[in-house]
From TrEMBL:
Boundaries of every NAD-dependent epimerase/dehydratase domain copy: 4-84, 106-255
Coiled coil: none
Gene source species: Emiliania huxleyi (strain CCMP1516)
Domain of life: Eukaryota
Pfam families, per the entry: Epimerase
PANTHER family reported for this sequence: HOMOSERINE ACETYLTRANSFERASE FAMILY PROTEIN (AFU_ORTHOLOGUE AFUA_1G15350) (PTHR32268:SF15), HOMOSERINE O-ACETYLTRANSFERASE (PTHR32268)
GO MF annotations in UniProt: acyltransferase activity, transferring groups other than amino-acyl groups
InterPro entries hit by this protein: AB_hydrolase_fold, Epimerase_deHydtase, HAT_MetX-like, NAD(P)-bd_dom_sf
SUPFAM superfamilies for this protein: alpha/beta-Hydrolases, NAD(P)-binding Rossmann-fold domains
Protein name stated in the entry: NAD-dependent epimerase/dehydratase domain-containing protein
Amino acid sequence: MRAVVTGAAGRIGRGVATALRERGHTVVGVDMASAPPGLLGTGCDDFVTIDLAAAVAGQERECLTAAMDGADVVVHCAAWPGPSATPPPAVVASGDATKPPIGLETAPPAVLLRDNVASTSAVCDAAIAGGASRFVFSSSAFAMGFSHVPRGPQAWSSKVGYLPVDEAHGAQPHESYGLSKLAGEEILETAARTATDTSFVSLRFTNIVKRELWSSLPWEAPTSAEPLQLVLWAYVHEDDVIRAHVAAATREDAAARGSHEAYLLAAPDSRFAEPTLPLLASVLGVEGMPLRSPMEGNASVLCARKATERLGVERALSDPEVQHFDLAGFELACGHALPAGATLAYKVHGPPVGASKGVILHPTSFDAVHDELEYSIGEGQTLDTSAYTVVVPNLLGNGVSYSPSRMRHAERLAGYPPLLSIGDNVRAQHLLLEHLHAARGAPMAPLSLAYEWAVAHPDHVERVAAVCGAARCGELNGVFLRSIEEALKADAAWDASRGHFTTRPDRGLRAFGSIYAGWGVGAGWYTQRGYASAGFECAEAFVRDSYLPAFANCDADDLLSQIRTWRHADVSRHTGGDLAAALGRVRARVLLMPCDEDRYFTLGEAQHEAALLGERATLRPIVSAAGHRAGDPHRPELAAEAAFIRRHVHELLSER
């Protein structure tokens, strides 16, 4: 599929372009700004610089027409991205507007309206002429209503007819930005009447919470003295906005040909921990509102049910397919008990538990979340869901299960989070499997997770596939972990007295990624120009465009928590430090798949473990210059490594 993404130099546009390209689509980026460093080759195959607001005629129009030619899908993200700082005449400015809770644009209302409408019209026309079968428009929840005034007759809350507000409520913008988005939707509605071979989707998303600001939620509750305009009570995670655009671009049922569908995007809760309905009454004087669906707890004022059902999007950290196993009160090995709200997030693939040949437990590893493992899960894949039920628990500390980034503000202020050990993870996962009535399984995991399962619960594990992992964190591995931890903490954002970061440590994350690039792949990746197979011209470009972006938006406190988990991994703690005795407990068949060039889970360690396991183990080294990266072969250049792992995992699972 050939996709054109406008606004590709911006944060959301770039995220959408990159996500589409990672899924194998050819992507052309369009923006009035030049392509940012690293975008070409990672997020876009080609890039065109065009002032879309001027593309109604002349040379800019010709360039736009050429860019759209042959496009299958067009995703239009380019726009002035927020309301004007100048209140429109219909809304009286108040003191509240002097401290805007969101970014406001410098463009006067008339300029903002003109540019957004003109660019949407021009891109829509060019997309249809180019033969696009799907057009996706970045609209806004501000089309539903936004006012600089939080309450009173000119506030949007005074015009709301029921809660939670959904698409059927009707859009009623109060200012030029919301009006420009509604006008853009009307352009698509009009186009759908004659462009019957094209389908149109508008995504009305509310204020985005960026990845690095996720830990700022929940906010302190507003008060009658310092209220907040109603639509801003809602929010959406940055990753969900990107996922929604990708789903809208690729899901056939997002909109029928010759039709236009609008979707609201919002998290199911508000920005605040307090119950929504009492807060509305005390802060905005909104009470007795008819309810179209229950609003329990801190439910959002916006309803995203349509997007959840049709696009499969709700929230990256708790989407409809991810379930949460309650860990409130769970006692950690370090002596701490997890607080109320702590959960183990997991996802189940394939037949229900009990309706398949068995259960495969596939936990996430360092800096990975459940959806990053899905390339290996499915019918005929490495973990074949035509035969097995696959349960994917998220590692404690990874930002989806209980983690520093999900701790409430008061918890973070209390000091460094407790050690979340490999043993804690396996005990929590064991409770989860008991909850799911899955007594026996076949863990597949790196680090010590699979080994920990086989040693701590030998009667519950039949087979183990340890891919680029080890039974314990060795001394060389510890040196590596110490270096990336020190790189993070060298940033001025690290508060040693409180044990957490006060802001995102951009320089520390950059140093972290730079060091990781020397360990995450094998020596041959550089000495034999293995990076060229991934499309990089030189080693510097690979580090700059692959490793640095991979960690740029990570939550640094989560990274530190996972480093501590990794560093303390050691199954021999069950036997007083005797590794041979610990591995002697293992009853399962064990497939060891180290990479011959893994720089921290070394081949030598795997050979030693295989010797201790004896005939229970099968050693199948992955020969690859990619080093540790070979154990996560979702990238196209690692197809041979993926096939190798899949073949031997299938052999392991087929053994009697």
